[in-house]
Design a protein that fits this description.
4 helices, ABC transporter substrate-binding protein, 3% strand, mainly alpha
Length: 119
């Protein structure tokens, strides 16, 4: 299979029948039509005249089959840090706000003994 290695990985691992049991092929794509289009797209890397209609055809086939692509959404952010930082009383609504934290000398001084006590 000739073509760009990155394109080959992205298309084959995520959308080809060959990887139906792979964790990458989460939507469970298994179609000889899609496999054929992927192979043609990989072979046509660098050729815009061939890639454009092939990409459109692949898009139509994928859309027509209604494949679900999970977003793996979590409502919370998980973060681990040493307790030597302080944070503002009001946190940003749409971010972790790490860029608003500051080094707290008092907390940093207490950290070694807290670590020894397993806290």
């Amino acid at each position: 299979m000739a073509g760009d290695a990155v394109a080959q990985f992205r298309f084959t691992d995520f959308l080809s029948s060959e990887y139906i049991n792979s964790t990458y092929n989460a939507p469970g794509v298994q179609s000889p039509v899609i496999d054929s289009l992927i192979n043609q797209i990989i072979a046509a890397q660098g050729n815009k005249e061939k890639l454009l209609p092939l990409g459109r055809a692949l898009d139509r086939v994928l859309t027509w089959n209604y494949y679900m692509l999970p977003m793996w959404y979590m409502a919370e952010d998980r973060l681990a840090w040493w307790d030597k930082f302080s944070q503002p009383a009001v946190r940003p609504v749409y971010s972790l706000g790490i860029d608003t934290w500051w080094y707290d000398v008092n907390k940093a001084t207490k950290l070694p003994s807290a670590r020894q006590q397993g806290e």
